[in-house]
Specification:
about 80 residues; 2 helices; about 45% helix; mainly alpha
Length: about 80
């Protein structure tokens, strides 16, 4: 079935009869999400764009202030 696979001589050891052979895991790729996230805050010259960073920080703060009361109400209702 797999002609290039090396064969073992003789029967398998007793502990190997009912187990599957381990397959080699392919090397894991690095996540591309983090470099893309950081790249969004850089200008065309490759330097960090402080305007984009501060604007994003203000948007996150605004979102947190809007969602925080809902989360605290939900937490209080779950405790009861």
């Amino acid at each position: 079935m797999f002609p290039e696979r090396p064969r073992r001589p003789g029967p398998p050891p007793p502990h190997m009869i009912f187990t599957r052979p381990m397959r080699e895991q392919p090397p894991k790729k690095k996540s591309a999400a983090m470099p893309n996230l950081i790249a969004r805050f850089r200008n065309p010259e490759g330097q960090f764009d402080m305007d984009k960073i501060t604007e994003t920080a203000f948007q996150i703060n605004k979102l947190y202030s809007e969602v925080s009361p809902m989360i605290s109400k939900l937490k209080n209702s779950v405790k009861k």
